[in-house]
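Researcher: Structure prediction, please.
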Amino acid sequence: MVLLDIPFQPDATACWRISVPGEDVRLFASRHAALRFAMDLARKQDETAGSVTYISLEGADGRWRLFDANFRTVG
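Model: Predicted structure follows.
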């Protein structure tokens, strides 16, 4: 299982960071770009690696919610 975290707010450098297992940290100028990357990567990994990749997205309320590669709520 792979988990990709996307916070609500950018970091101190005004970037959204995604830690990709086995790779370096990826930086994005917008939350939307980070989410688009995470969804594409999750779909690709689910298809090629046979593993399950989830996207953990922080909402404006501070709660983290879990989604699958098709952006359906998990759990």
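Model: The CA atoms of residues 14 and 23 lie 21 Å apart.
Researcher: Thanks, that helps.
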